[in-house]
Amino acid sequence: MSFTIDLSDKVVIVTGVSSGIGASIANMYTRANASVAGCALEDGNHEGVKSFVETARKESGKEPFYMQCDLTNDKAIIDFVEAVYKHFGRIDILASNAGANFFKGVYECSEEDWQKNLDLNFRSHWNLAKATRKYLEMHGTGIIIITSSSHAYNTLPGSFPYHIAKAALKAMVQSITIDWGPKIRCVGIAPGFIETRLATTWFDQFPDPEKERQRIVDAYPLKRLGKPDEIGGWYVFLSSEYAAFTGGQTYLIDGGRSAIMMD
Questions:
Q1: pTM, two decimal places
Q2: Looking at domain 11-196+228-254, what is its CATH homologous superfamily?
């Protein structure tokens, strides 16, 4: 008998579905037969959004829901969540993924940089959790999964505000679990370097991006960067019955990088 994960009776919200890890999270949920509601900054004509819709139809045979949404806008978050509930009649899982790096040092980071970073990389996750809470509690088995980052544990020069926000998400996962359990369980996922646009943006700031990429790859015991689908697979597993005793943890998925004592 094969080991399977079937989420055919679940409705999942995934944020940031137009590219990168968010697109892969949505894809993996549809492969598990879940009904997926996605959002991103782009409108429905964006290639990434069209890919999200087409992939969901192909993988699950179900029609996904999509709505353009600026997650730094409090009202937009509420409108999106209400529209998802109206469309599907339930919400079971929140995959709160959307975010972006802010490459600023401690001194160089302006007040504006600081606020924009917190609004997207921390406050949006908090507001999404609050907006979905009443729906997630309805069936007593609600799940919130938040994309943090390996930056929550250790960081790099010039990533000051991003590092602070991701460390705060780790704490928020704990607080949500304590305050909202047992009807809702909350976990976090902290990816290391994953092959996405954000990683490319980081490498492109160096005089020789390929040399810097290879330096990072060589520092990983697994000698490669992660793949978005590998993170999406973690989301699906943590949403399944097999992970029902998980809560309050943020899982570091970094190709063994954190196992190295020093360079």
A1: 0.94
A2: NAD(P)-binding Rossmann-like Domain (3.40.50.720)
